[in-house]
């Protein structure tokens, strides 16, 4: 849709948009998040069903006015947006109101948010097809629908003022929540017009602003959620408190699939404050007046377990199996030309490599938690989840209740990273809640969470390439071996045996290579559940691809940046961020020496989540293998920047998150047990170890790309390539510290 053309609203689209009045007076606007699409593209929930599934926060909604999202404007001029995403630090609760307020002409400080209730029919993300916050899709999915909605509401407010003042609509302007008629000096804030506006007809078309007209989009805006987080009034899942609520600590079998044999219930009950001991087949919970008592109730003697079939699983065996299966053929994810034959040709030089990436835990800052109030007639959950509708459905199934009898009270999330895309903890909490009466808050300790996480998959990647006589890659082969998350999370996404997440960033290379083939081998490790981890597939493939590209540049005796430039003729946006990052980093200029340490720069590029990025890392390596990251220069083209300050923050956070994992993190197993327990052996980067991060934004007029995850994906290869530049040692297996003898 062109920025400078009127938005034509089809009849089908108009059925997804309705105006109405709230019970207390004011304007309510219901609209579809799926934008201008054909009516048959999506099944709309019947109004009576939709209203019945909405939360009590929507009790003012008129019957028949149930749509995917809602905007309410009260008589005080306060604009309320029912937002279908969750806020977990990524800035969604600021960027999305900015989109609405830009076209509506609202005062951003008077835009309030209500989190949407669990409902896949009403609040599915247009890019993901479900009520999910993930995949760096929040702004991308809302870019058109929220702006269109704002423009529609602005239009009816103008129409109402035009009728009241008997002036032409073209004589009116909307500024900071007021409709103004400059010629007469008349002005009315939104609240004074809402009753009249609720009786107006929707326009047949609206005009969206040209980028040159933006007053909010593209400007640095203060985070709307920051004040509450600073003054302590923000409510996270772990803050839920109910009358007479019990607090429970949980211990599950240390081996996946293990069963509880026994627990010293008498000793647990002897702890002051302990109320009850709850048992499931593979877990035990102690409920107490407070968490300290609950935790003490699980202390020695610990519960006794039957390890079951996974009691002999260890990482060495898992990797050996993966190495073996990775040598066989896989499902074809991308095939251009004839890479197999091209690799076998005479001439040039053939390079081969095997890369490995470890299991990783999420280790969210807010401990995993879920508060449950289960009754015969319903169930309420207080939780922070990236998938409220999925959590609702899972709880209903365990509780044996209709879905509409389960209410999910979603909260701010203190770190998601993909961990809260899962509902295993919700299922366990509701199963325990069935064994007692009254509300109970379940909290999983850091040790329990890390050892029972759903981990980023282990990957084994086999690569081969042939350089021609001029040192350019003529053929490229890449076989990815790892477990399939999509086959469990979204089975329809699997096509011809290929997990699209597992090959993202590998099957869609930005580099021009004549013959290319990418394969995928699915291999599920025993006893290790796997799940999305911040950056998902690209965190693995960008590392592998960019590391191997660096190997090819070295083999061709070319500068790594110059080598990449020569392959990016068909991806000008990738080339642009590469050039910008290299320029800002001073690529080609010598680094200042550091006494007793070797220094080096490394580079990476990527296209992921709809955004283009390049990173240059500067590192030093000590004699003992200690790697220090001093500076990271990041250039990002994520299309139209909505809130540049948030983009910078997300790049900074993502880079630190990814660098931490690349340097030190891995999950290992022995006798079916995860060996890591807490931050003592699953290390986090400390503030004095954090590099200086410089972020340079290429602000294009293209539609926005994602920013929540790209920073994490690009830092690992930039670091390992910098280590190679400093030491001559190629890192093909993470974490870096382990390969250099420094864990």
Largest sheet: 7 strands, mixed
Q: Output mean pLDDT.
A: 91
Per DSSP E runs of 2 or more residues, the count of β-strands stands at 30
The strands making up the biggest β-sheet line up spatially as 13-14-11-21-18-19-20
Note poorly predicted spans.
Answer: 1-15, 36-67
The number of helical elements comes to 21
CATH fold annotation of the largest domain: Aldehyde Oxidoreductase, domain 4
Give the helix/strand class. alpha+beta
Overall radius of gyration? 28 Å
Beta-strand content = 15-25%
CATH architectural type of the largest domain: 2-Layer Sandwich
Q: What's the helical proportion of residues?
A: 25-40%
CATH-defined superfamily of the largest domain: Aldehyde oxidase/xanthine dehydrogenase, molybdopterin binding domain
Shape: globular
Distance between the amino and carboxyl termini: 52 Å
Number of domains: 3
Write down the CATH class of the largest domain: Alpha Beta
């Amino acid at each position: 849709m062109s920025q400078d053309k009127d938005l034509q609203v089809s009849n089908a689209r108009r059925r997804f948009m309705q105006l109405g009045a709230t019970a207390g007076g004011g304007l309510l606007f219901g609209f579809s998040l799926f934008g201008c699409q054909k009516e048959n593209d999506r099944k709309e929930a019947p109004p009576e069903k939709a209203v019945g599934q909405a939360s009590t926060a929507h009790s003012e909604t008129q019957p028949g006015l149930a749509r995917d999202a809602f905007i309410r404007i009260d008589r005080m001029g306060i604009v309320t947006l029912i937002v279908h995403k969750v806020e977990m630090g990524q800035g969604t609760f600021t960027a999305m109101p900015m989109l609405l307020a830009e076209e509506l002409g609202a005062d951003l400080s008077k835009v309030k948010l209500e989190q949407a209730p669990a409902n896949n029919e009403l609040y599915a993300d247009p890019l993901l097809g479900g009520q999910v916050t993930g995949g760096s899709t929040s702004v991308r999915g809302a870019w058109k629908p929220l702006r269109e909605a704002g423009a529609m509401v602005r239009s009816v407010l103008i129409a109402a003022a035009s009728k009241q003042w008997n002036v032409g609509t073209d004589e009116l302007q909307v500024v900071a929540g007021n409709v103004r008629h400059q010629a007469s000096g008349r002005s009315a804030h939104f609240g004074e017009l809402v009753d009249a506006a609720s009786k107006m007809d929707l326009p047949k078309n609206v005009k969206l602003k040209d980028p040159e007209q933006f007053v909010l989009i593209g400007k640095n805006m203060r985070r709307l959620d920051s004040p509450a987080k600073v003054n302590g009034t923000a409510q996270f899942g772990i803050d839920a408190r109910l009358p007479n609520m019990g607090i429970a600590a949980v211990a599950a079998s240390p081996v996946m699939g293990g069963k509880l044999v026994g627990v010293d219930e008498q000793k647990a009950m002897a702890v002051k404050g302990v109320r009850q001991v709850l048992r499931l087949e593979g877990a035990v919970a102690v409920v107490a007046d407070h968490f300290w008592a609950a935790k003490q109730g699980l202390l020695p003697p610990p519960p006794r377990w039957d390890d079951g079939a996974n009691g002999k699983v260890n990482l060495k065996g898992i990797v050996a199996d993966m190495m073996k299966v990775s040598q066989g053929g896989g499902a074809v994810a991308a095939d251009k030309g004839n890479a197999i034959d091209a690799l076998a040709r005479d001439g040039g030089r053939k390079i081969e490599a095997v890369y490995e990436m470890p299991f990783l835990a999420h280790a969210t800052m807010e401990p995993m938690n879920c508060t449950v109030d289960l009754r015969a007639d319903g169930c309420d959950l207080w939780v922070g989840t990236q998938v409220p509708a999925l959590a609702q459905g899972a709880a209903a199934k365990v509780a044996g209740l209709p879905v509409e009898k389960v209410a999910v009270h979603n909260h701010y999330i203190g770190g998601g990273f993909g961990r809260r895309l899962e509902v295993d903890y919700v299922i366990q909490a509701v199963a325990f809640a069935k064994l007692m009466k009254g509300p109970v808050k379940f909290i999983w300790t850091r040790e329990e969470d890390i050892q029972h996480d759903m981990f980023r998959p282990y990957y084994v990647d086999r690569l081969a390439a042939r350089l021609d006589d001029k040192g350019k890659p003529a053929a490229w082969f890449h076989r990815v071996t790892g477990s399939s998350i999509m086959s469990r999370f979204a089975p329809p996404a699997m096509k011809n045996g290929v997990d699209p997440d597992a090959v993202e960033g590998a099957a869609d290379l930005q580099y021009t290579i004549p013959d290319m083939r990418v394969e995928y081998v699915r291999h599920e490790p025993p006893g290790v559940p796997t799940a999305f981890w911040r950056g998902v597939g690209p965190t693995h493939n960008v590392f592998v691809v960019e590391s191997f590209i660096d190997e090819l540049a070295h083999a061709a005796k070319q500068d790594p940046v110059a080598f990449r430039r020569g392959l990016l003729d068909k991806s000008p946006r990738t080339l642009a961020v590469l050039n910008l990052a290299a320029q800002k980093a001073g690529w080609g200029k010598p680094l200042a020496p550091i006494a007793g340490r070797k220094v080096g720069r490394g580079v990476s590029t990527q296209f992921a989540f709809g955004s283009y990025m390049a990173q240059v890392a500067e590192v030093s390596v000590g004699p003992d293998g200690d790697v220090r990251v001093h500076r990271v220069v990041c250039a990002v083209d994520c299309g139209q920047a909505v809130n540049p300050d948030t983009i910078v923050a997300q790049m900074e956070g993502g880079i630190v998150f990814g660098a931490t994992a690349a340097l030190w993190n891995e999950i290992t197993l022995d006798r079916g047990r995860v060996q890591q327990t807490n931050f003592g052996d699953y290390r986090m980067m400390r503030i004095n170890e954090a590099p200086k991060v410089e972020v340079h934004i290429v602000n294009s007029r293209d539609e926005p790309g994602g920013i929540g995850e790209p920073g994490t994906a690009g830092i690992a290869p930039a670091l390992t390539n910098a280590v190679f530049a400093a030491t001559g040692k190629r890192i093909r297996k993470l974490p870096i510290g382990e390969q250099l003898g420094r864990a």
